[in-house]
């Protein structure tokens, strides 16, 4: 499970404070009353929320320190615009904003696809020929006519024309109604992966239900909520060593149930 941890330069993620709901509401009221320090405390107390979002982007070839800073900007926007009157948790409102900021950053920093100059030159020659052919015959030449004219294959015609098209990022927004944007990657489905993930989730849920309540709760706190063993120990009023033993026992039982 350690591979899922987000490592940040100069940041000890185990020491990041996590605010409970009551503490957050109290700080929001202070912030609305003009207490600037309350806003800082809200940001610092929700940094683990940003880390939880970054886990889903850990395979992107972008520095996680940069993504963290961008995610914090999304968190600050959420705190600035959060409305207590709706009765929502901050995390419910903030997570989409953090994801949106991270996706936009990744989209804007993706490297462009490099295409050879000769292929692009041929593409422009093809476009020129198409214009001449259309003016002479009144119709658009098909790929076979173009290929015959340039003595190349139909594939080379298609490849040349594709080379001058602007690449579309999977993080390109395809819909925006004034709120959170819908990105292309959100609509790309891998049916095989979806089926495998569904089967794994069903199996994990069944195995979790077979665990003792304390074991189950500790696993959920550790790997879903993202709490540290120290934080769990404080909540349960037991030692960190006890939490560690219960966690190891729970994982061992999970593996046994999954066989």
Report on this model:
With 259 residues, the chain is mainly alpha-helical. The chain has 3 domains: 2-111, Four Helix Bundle (Hemerythrin (Met), subunit A) (Up-down Bundle), CATH 1.20.120; 117-163, Arc Repressor Mutant, subunit A (Orthogonal Bundle), CATH 1.10.10; 201-258, Arc Repressor Mutant, subunit A. It has 13 helices and 2 strands. The protein has helices at residues 21-32, 36-44, 47-54, 64-81, 90-109, 117-137, 143-150, 154-163, 184-187, 191-210, 213-225, 229-236, 240-258, and strands at 173-175, 182-183. Strands 1-2 form a two-stranded antiparallel ribbon. A hairpin with a 6-residue loop joins strand 1 (173-175) and strand 2 (182-183). Helix 6 (117-137) packs across helix 8. The protein is elongated.
Category by helix and strand content: mainly alpha
Strand order of the largest sheet: 1-2
CATH topology of the largest domain: Four Helix Bundle (Hemerythrin (Met), subunit A)
Q: Total helix count? A: 13
- The fraction of residues assigned to DSSP E strands is under 5%
Distance N to C terminus: 19 Å
């Amino acid at each position: 499970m350690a591979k899922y941890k987000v490592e940040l330069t100069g940041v000890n993620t185990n020491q990041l404070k996590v605010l409970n709901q009551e503490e957050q509401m109290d700080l929001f009221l202070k912030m609305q009353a003009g207490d600037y320090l309350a806003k800082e405390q809200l940001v610092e107390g929700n940094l683990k929320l940003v880390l939880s979002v970054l886990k889903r982007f850990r395979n992107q070839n972008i520095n996680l320190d940069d993504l963290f800073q961008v995610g914090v900007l999304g968190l600050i926007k959420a705190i600035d615009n959060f409305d207590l009157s709706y009765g929502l948790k901050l995390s419910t409102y903030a997570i989409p904003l953090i994801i949106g900021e991270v996706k936009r950053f990744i989209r804007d920093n993706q490297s462009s696809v490099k295409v050879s100059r000769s292929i692009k030159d041929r593409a422009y020659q093809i476009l020129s020929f198409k214009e001449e052919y259309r003016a002479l015959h009144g119709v658009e030449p098909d790929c076979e006519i173009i290929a015959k004219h340039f003595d190349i294959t139909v594939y080379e015609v298609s490849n040349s024309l594709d080379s001058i098209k602007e690449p579309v990022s999977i993080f390109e927004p395809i819909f925006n109604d004034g709120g959170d944007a819908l990105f292309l990657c959100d609509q790309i489905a891998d049916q095989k992966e979806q089926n495998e993930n569904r089967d794994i989730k069903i199996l994990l849920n069944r195995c979790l239900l077979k665990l003792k309540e304390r074991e189950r709760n500790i696993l959920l706190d550790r790997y879903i909520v993202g709490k540290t063993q120290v934080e769990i120990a404080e909540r349960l009023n037991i030692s960190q060593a006890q939490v560690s033993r219960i966690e190891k026992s729970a994982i061992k039982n999970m593996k046994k149930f999954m066989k």
